[in-house]
Amino acid sequence: MTTATAPKQRRRRDWPIIGGLILLAFVPSIAGALRVAQLTGGVERTAANARFVDMPAPVIVHIVGAVTYAILGALQFAPGFRRTHRRWHRISGRVLVLAGLAVALSGLWMTTFYDLPDTDNAATNATRYVVGVFMVVAIVLGFTAIRRRDFHAHRAWMMRAYAVAMAAGTQVVTSVPLLLLPIEPGTPAFAAWRSVAMIGAWVLNLAIAEVVIRRPAPPRRPLVGAV
User: Are 165 and 70 in contact (CB under 8 A)?
Assistant: First the structure.
């Protein structure tokens, strides 16, 4: 293998990572973009969207921050892309910290001040508090870790924060069984099953992140000069 070939192979291995993460964020990002378009363009106030129409700023901040966080984060976690674009990694990392905090803090604000829709219950709301606080703590710990040059801790905490944020995409998948169950939306039974789907997505994403974090790094292959 030549020294020129190795970076190309790393970049090829990155595309499934980048594509998979962006695909995971696609559905909630489209839904969020439509919500922002409705709120900024004027939308009829209904019982379902009253909380957003009455106080649109928090949800707009949440959506814009989430889309930014999802797309930039996908590029951050691609090793080959990160190694070949170090300056971009540092600059976008600062943007990610701000976007991630915007997502978590606006999410906590909405959980506290928005009316609870009849599709959710107290368990879902309580978990949102836990996830929001955890995400803030993880981002702060990841930022302080890189300031002291602890790259392993930085990667681990930023990966945990990204995992819980990306649960919005996983929740689309875990909520599919709700469409198949003979349960009326707005009932306590529906809210209970939806809670299982929502919490399950957060737990699943965090578990996958922990597996990746704790997985031993593959040994580096020595680069051989061009032949």
Answer: yes
Distance CA 70, CA 24 (A): 9
Looking at residue 1, its pLDDT comes to 47
Q: Nearest 5°: CA angle at 85, between 84 and 86?
A: 105
Length of the chain: 227
pTM value is: 0.84
Span 152-189, pLDDT tens digits: 999 999 999 999 999 998 998 899 888 888 888 889 99
Q: Looking at residue 218, what is its pLDDT?
A: 58
Q: Which segments of the chain have a pLDDT < 50?
A: 1-6, 222-227
Tokens 């040994």 sit on residue: 219
Is-contact 129 108, C-beta < 8 A? yes
Residue whose structure tokens are 């009326």: 184
Count Cα atoms within 13 angstroms, Cβ side, for 203. 9
Extract the tokens encoding 141.
């710990």
Q: Where are the domains of the chain?
A: 5-214
Q: Which amino acid, 144? A: T
d(Cα 82, Cα 89) in Å, to the nearest integer?
A: 6
